[in-house]
Amino acid sequence: MKLWVDGVLGDESELRVSPLDHGLLVGDGAFETLRVYRGVPFAWHRHLRRLERSAGGLGLHIPPEETLRAAADAVLAANELLEARLRITITGGRSPLGSERGSAPVTRIVAASELAPWKETAGVCIVPWRRNERGATTGLKTISYADNVRALAYAYERGADEAIFANTRDELCEATGSNVFVAREGILRTPPASAGCLLGVTRALLITLAERASIPLEEVALPISALAESEEAFLSSTTREVQAIAAVDGRPLPDAPGPITRRLAGLFRELVASDIDP
Fold it and tell me: Less crowded by CB within 10 Å, the N or C end of the chain?
């Protein structure tokens, strides 16, 4: 695999990041994952704006857009990837052994890989841990993913494909790498930012598509029980796009994929085909 690290495009076995990098030591960093269609990153500017917000929330600065885009294009070309997952990572750079950040510049990494296909539907598991909707990094896409790793392992151990978090108020929050939508009596609902979820790029596009298609939609706080009580539900993310939820804690939902899920999935595919940077 060819990667780009701090301005150098090279083989994975040749490139190095300091063992004192703050991203490695304390998880100090931000990242974005983009879906690549036909060799082109989708929704580039939306993802870049969110990377700026996440990095800024940590006190980090990202390189100029033209630098990152050139790196992304170089990585995709070097690996001959057309349908792929592209990741941009920014860390606090070489730092002391502690929480304080050093004076070194940020570390910049751009990598890409083939994208494994997702199943049409997913079973989900509600995990016993909570998202903190008032945390210092709430709403930022940081590289501190240990909670997600643990939660996903918990879900896998129980035969599920994805883990679902409630927040400290026992409201529906998000999955490990996805937003959650639920539908009942023709109304689609999804947790708002105040629930503590990361606001996904795909989530925002789906909300716009629903509005254009006159699908009733509410961004509203929901009890965690709303997921299992829904008539249909789905996960949304950059790589999943729209994936129907078939079961919650082993209990099947009535419709998977349901009519709203199918309609929005179709509208999203049409958007990708017509506008690579919406």
Answer: N
Q: What is the distance between the alpha carbons of residues 95 and 104, in angstroms, rounded to a whole number?
A: 7
**pTM, full prediction:** 0.96
pLDDT tens, residue by residue, 82-103: 999 999 999 999 999 999 999 9
For tokens 């939902």, the residue is: 253
204-215 tens-digit pLDDT: 999 999 999 999
Handedness of CA 202, 158, 118, 115 (dihedral sign): positive
- Tokens for 139, please give them: 């709403």
| Non-local CB neighbours of 222 within 8 Å, separated by 6+ positions | 171, 172, 182, 189, 191, 195
Give the whole-angstrom CA distance, residue 188 versus residue 233: 9
The SS3 assignment for 36 reads strand
Cβ contact 211:201 at 8 Å: no
Helix (H, G, I), strand (E, B) or coil at 275: coil
Q: What are phi and psi of 233, to 5 degrees?
A: -155, 160
- Written as six digits, the tokens of 55 are 């990095």
